[in-house]
Design goal:
2 domains, single chain, 5-stranded parallel sheet, 8 helices, Rossmann fold, 4-stranded antiparallel sheet, Arc Repressor Mutant, subunit A, elongated, 220 residues, 11 strands, alpha/beta
Length: 220
């Protein structure tokens, strides 16, 4: 089944370009040129994602976003706008946007962000390994039925390992995903946090693959 995307954009040339490129990639596209008509489509159609401009007629994008989240908060939204102030980005993310893309942007970057969002929304939110369970939605890790206190970074690392359970993951990939690509620290930061998880949880659950990285064993 094709994934359905709604584009709410009043700049006709950009809207047409996005529709053409996304259709070519296999997405089914709806378009709207103002906030009111965009909301109407959102209410009536089964959508997988919304690409939303901020500066649109009749109802601005921020208010459209707020109303959409009241209707269905599960549909991911990418804000696309020329507004590049940090305060605007924070406002958009706080209102429920999943990502914020500043104009001008490349189609390739948009496609990459779409793939990231779809992966995030199609992956399970509950994971388990032996007596260990992780709830992404509740942000809780339990061991033997009892909550375990993990830092934000420890939780993110454990989640990343669960998402790639059974795969060998390099230290570089872990740093990029959990700490961000601009992180200026050392590779041994990963080793330190792996030790933290082993100490708090099952010490045998995370394998060290010499010269390659780490692997969370397959579920027992």
């Amino acid at each position: 089944m094709e994934q359905r995307i709604l584009i709410i954009e009043d700049e006709e040339s950009l809207s047409n370009l996005l529709k053409t490129e996304l259709s070519f990639e296999g997405y089914e596209i709806n378009t709207a040129a103002d906030g009111i008509s965009g909301l109407k489509i959102f209410e009536q159609e089964q959508l997988d994602l919304v690409i939303l401009d901020w500066m649109i007629p009749k109802l601005d994008g921020l208010e459209v976003l707020r109303r959409m989240k009241k209707i269905n908060k599960e549909v991911p939204v990418i804000f696309v706008t020329a507004r590049d102030y940090v305060g605007d980005k924070v406002a958009g993310l706080d209102a429920g946007a999943d990502d914020y893309l500043t104009k001008p942007f490349s189609i390739e970057e948009l496609m990459a962000r779409l793939r990231v969002i779809y992966r995030k929304h199609t992956q399970p939110t509950q994971y388990a390994y032996g007596e260990i369970s992780l709830s992404q939605s509740e942000h809780i890790v339990k061991y033997g039925g009892k909550p375990i206190n993990l830092s934000q970074r420890e939780f993110a690392l454990l989640l990343f390992l669960f998402e790639h359970q059974g795969e060998i993951i390099s230290r570089d990939d872990i740093l990029d995903e959990v700490w961000g690509m601009n992180f200026g620290g050392q590779l041994n930061t990963v080793d330190t946090y792996i030790r933290y998880l082993r100490k708090k949880l099952d010490k045998n659950m995370i394998e060290t693959i010499r010269g390659l990285g780490y692997r969370l064993k397959k579920n027992k």
